[in-house]
# Entry
Amino acid sequence: MSSLPAEKFKPPEEEKTGMEDIIKNAVRDEEKRKCGSKKAKLDVFVIPRQQGDLNSFFMSKLQSLDGQFSTFNCTSKKDQEKGYFKYNCLRFGNPRGKSYRSVGCKAYVSFKINNDWQDHTVIVQRVFDLHNNHVTTDPSDGHLHCMDMHLKRKIEELLALGTKPNIILSECHKWARDRGHSDINDRTYFATPRDINNIRTTVMRRKRFHSNDSQSVEGLLGGPLQEHVVFYQPYTSCQELIIVLQTQMMKSNLLQYGKNLVFVDTTHCVNQYEFPLLALLVRDGNGRGVPVAYAILSNERQTTLEKALEQLRKQFLCPPRAFMVDKDYAEINALSSIFPESAILLCWYHVMQAVQRWLTKTESGVHGPSNVKTRDDIISFFYKLKACKTEAEYEATAKKFNKTFKRHPAVCQYFQRHWHDIGHMWSDYGRRFEHFNSDTNNVIER
# Structure
């Protein structure tokens, strides 16, 4: 048996390497003939078809370039379908607003995928690394870098768990140091509070149903939250926004614990439009506050509150014995209108807060360091008024109050005008029923 001539025999590996070199040279010559920046460095990579993740390949090449380029592909979806990917310098773009990250740097890295060769994927890489308008070797330049994608993913995971921003910041710094990074000015690995807030905003926007908030709300309320919507009135130029929400668990808690006392309060700054959030809570069997309904409103006018409460009344088996509120007359009047059978109680904490604030004003006549004892005596008298068990006792104590502080007419007038006639709303004689010893709205403030 004769053997093949040595010069005609090639081992498989050598044959494979030879084919890759042929492909590289052919593609490189073709790319050089095309128009493009002659200053961009051209390189060609040949990998077996279906081997490895191309995105991981791109990321490894970007990281090998000293981390000066973004890991975000800036090409359009149409270009991506054609196999073209481009990653700009971290300082790309024109400066805007208070941002100093963008300086108009033209450096970039691009990849073009070519699948014309049988059993091989060809990747054409162009690197234009002539950075302008910033110095890549300047240590302070690192503070303006984009965040590492793994760190960004970690922050997103922590946000999904409801972790507080200060804890996320601490965890991020620990993550960076565990990986050998020590330059706290390098924003690639050391996140700032602003970075965390920006990622939080991005995550929230990602969950939106539509770029138009009005359509997004309608899609959300007509989809995943549909079974929890008690009432929805869209916001228009002719009507106010009203969204009343109640889950099945909330309804169950209301029916079980909402017979005696329901806490009501309005919270602000919980959405980008600063629409107030009306919250209703009750105390459960363990004394903890649990929500029984929420309403998002475009304003706090009495008529708007009345319309929301009118829808909520249908969810009550019977009107509660009382509602506890701050001294907000729009809330008080709306509740009195829709629930005339229920008493209105004032949060004792907010009563004392209002009194103490007024006493420090010039108009009180008892402001300043010289009247500290007088102010303390007035506060003590309010506590005596609070402890009255009967209306008769309250009236008698009120007379003593006016007699004791007759030398301070402004104080007496303030008491008569703002507190005397509504004693049943904040004094103990007005809450002689089971109310779980709840004197404040703190259960809803938490």
About this structure: The chain has 16 helices and eleven strands.
